[in-house]
């Protein structure tokens, strides 16, 4: 997220407010409602036309509580809670009814995925019943049960009227003091030297201490006036409404036929049939009518033919139904199918709530509450890292990139959500200097923050295409070979995509001491694994620091969280610090040489002493490799002897070539990110976004050993962390699990049961090719405390798609728990 805010002198304002929200759709109304619920009264919502007139008015109004992940379900489940009580509170009818959702599956794979999602619902006490085709027909008599293999029924889901619901939220906000100014268009906005935001409207200038952009499709263009780049692009979204039909009853559940790309809901005696077709239609903003409320676009029956045909297969009566309305309206989408909320990096008191990917009604309630809590408290109060506006890289605002990606993103709503699924569009954006080497070796590439990264390597003459599966994807046999090579000989991985930031300046050490929980005031060449925490002790970054000199540190972080790490660090660099932060990711290619024979290989190419005594674990040296001078870090993310070589990018191909040539006699093999994931899990190394989030503490994550409790000046989050340490036993801990049955595969989100009771879920899981069965990490919760006895004296089971599998639990890794392989 790049910002280059124009700072302009203050103008005379006819109105000054604490919080101004631009946008009178579901995002803006929900936020205003929740801000006033938290006691904020000086809240103003600006809407250029009338409430809901952007995209909210034409929403389908579906209410779904369960999602494929616990984090998304935590946000989505609140919609039914809020909408069910809203009319009684505000006096404004919403049209909300809990007639349930019936999700049908045409294939066994879809039924399995559906059952996995139903398991997630159990964590939240939500009803989700897996039912037979016959039972599905009993609930929805018009469907053809012969074309489905099963279904899920979620009785407390339903539907609502989007216009009435939005108006009801606005009414609730107004009742507690908020102002709703309709027909107030913002034509310009800027930041003043004293930090306020001023907005020029058709009624004059309005000033805001806190500004929120919740403008749907129009957020990107309005944000650009402040130098803020928001990655949004529009797409066309279609539905049709039939003439009245005898088969339609008010109690019909919402029908979701994801294999058929359609959803079908009752609509005043008619059926509304909407589509998330396999490939959407991108919509450039310049193609939208200007200054128009309640936009309707042109019909496109050719594009709608596939989902409509599938709907008629599912409900044969539709073949003879008349069509009363064909609707096509614009919606905004993001490049990763997740909406965005939060404070814009580098722009204090500027927030965004947008990019709801045609699911604003479903997520608007929970997102509005989460963002309101963030604004009032000054920091996020729940895990929103995965929807944080700070997560994007600057290239993702590129209009060509978005135009090519968004049609695929729209289709992902209803496509199978395969583990490790890779996008097909907007690829080749960022390539390692070694890309061609990996391609010649048979790499199957995946994408991470735009980087093309080898995921696995095919055998000679074999296809590199992915064949996805919840049991045994086609790369398993290749990944297994890569893992075996790493454990017995050596592998070479490309970690160039890892984020690299250089922090330097007179206060660099002092600054990092304040931000990091660990002690970074170490000797030059020492590597420090540490975390930056929030005030609650939650983990905001998971990084490795390399002290290059007294006033220089190199920070290494995962590629996918690199932008967010940068935003967190930048946020804390105030004028009081003599510190600069520079992104040097592109300056270095990184080759990770790992395995028992890594020392033998590297010794052939350098005159540096690589012995344990001369080059201990967690240290760094500049050494010669071939003709190049590289930064060699003795580190591992797989639990083996190894070095991560930071190579000047222009010398990367040379270093690769000499390593590869020498490595042949030692059995050196290329390895991809799947192998990295499998082996780091075997060693129980944590991964940010999966095992570590802002609501997990270092103690809960089993990382207390990284904390320096006594360093001078302390660190952000020390008080909360020390308080938790003093109040042991911990009520939540990250635990390792190993299945007794070698057949089922863990990925993530599977339920953890102790003595039959749900106590947590798997945060990350893999098939361990070293151990011969699936393993995983997951947080276990208990009010009595998660102690060693609690772990050892319970019966542990993992629930996968509704089926229970026996498991062993441990606070240590199942592979090399003492780390003996690191020092050989």
Automatic annotation (TrEMBL):
It is an enzyme of class 1 (oxidoreductase). The lineage of its organism: Bacteria, Pseudomonadati, Pseudomonadota, Alphaproteobacteria, Hyphomicrobiales. It comes from the Bacteria. SUPFAM superfamilies: Aminomethyltransferase beta-barrel domain, FAD-linked reductases, C-terminal domain, FAD/NAD(P)-binding domain, Folate-binding domain. One of its GO terms (molecular function) is 4-methylaminobutyrate oxidase (demethylating) activity. Keywords: Oxidoreductase. Residues 19-374 form the FAD dependent oxidoreductase domain. It comes from Rhizobium giardinii. Residues 378-432 form the FAD dependent oxidoreductase central domain. Pfam families: DAO, FAO_M, GCV_T, GCV_T_C. Residues 732-816 form the Aminomethyltransferase C-terminal domain. Residues 434-711 form the GCVT N-terminal domain. The keyword Iron does not apply. Its EC number is 1.5.3.19. This is 4-methylaminobutanoate oxidase (Formaldehyde-forming). Belongs to the GcvT family.
